[in-house]
Specification:
about 70 residues; mainly alpha; 4 helices; about 0% strand; globular
């Protein structure tokens, strides 16, 4: 397995939170948000819940056939 440094336990910056809000609003998949912010999917979901950021169904499952026409 390749080395992959995640920001485990690193504080969230204002820029990280803004990027999370933007990507979630665009319906970006949680896994893509995690890669872009260099955090785990669980961290993304947890922080989104803490801050009241809605992760849409599209952001949970990028393979959902109902979201393929986006």
């Amino acid at each position: 397995m390749a080395d992959y440094d995640r920001s485990t336990g690193a504080p969230w910056s204002a820029e990280d939170l803004e990027q999370l809000r933007i990507l979630a609003a665009e319906g970006t998949a949680t896994s893509v948000i995690a890669v872009q912010l260099n955090r785990s999917e669980e961290a993304i979901a947890h922080r989104a819940a803490q801050d009241g950021i809605a992760l849409t169904a599209a952001s949970h499952n990028p393979y959902d056939p109902n979201t393929l026409d986006r």
